[in-house]
């Protein structure tokens, strides 16, 4: 074989190796993309409907938004100004099951939706509604005066059964320790007067002895909450 023929043969071999390498790279890339798409489809969360909680599987059981505190945990009594202008103490509703929620009147979404659910729970309870207290404690005492709270309850159509409270930030932080409450004014949105407050969105259920018995995640179905309340009342 001449030198030219040998050179041509070597060149052809190199070309085949290059083409084979490129082909394997392309094939690997395509397989990777396909696997990524399949994995993404399989792990994609289902869309939420009406902000209802998406069910999750926890230890083989479907999570319905209810966290049971077993045994129930004692919480400290507290007193805050109410929307009526009179002070309200947690012990004032001793003997009743109490739904407690921390929010604020300028909240654009979570708080109004929670009060809608409170109204549904109240209606579902029927005769047991009189054995249940619904308390809305503001984390924005700077703006949520008793007058503002009273107007807010009227606008939200819950004034006939919800007790609204407000107080100094230091008081709410002290009270919130029993509930793992988080709230923080956001300084990156709105004006100095028109700000938002990030806060815990869960609702807390106290039994007739004033102990923390359950925590309801935001989005828990009203029927589920009503059922749990009735278990405490009739338990």
What keyword list fits this structure?
Glutaredoxin, six-stranded mixed beta sheet, 12 strands, single chain, 5 helices, two-stranded antiparallel sheet, 235 residues, 2 domains, 24% strand, alpha+beta
Write up this protein.
This protein folds into 2 domains: 44 residues; 179 residues, Glutaredoxin, CATH 3.40.30.10. The protein has 5 helices and 12 strands. α2 crosses α5. The chain is globular and about 50 Å long. The strands form 4 sheets. The protein has a 6-stranded mixed β-sheet with strand order 3-12-11-6-7-8. The chain has a two-stranded antiparallel ribbon with strand order 1-2. A two-stranded antiparallel ribbon has the order 4-5. With 235 residues, it is of the alpha+beta class. β11 and β12 form a beta hairpin. About 18% of the residues have low confidence.
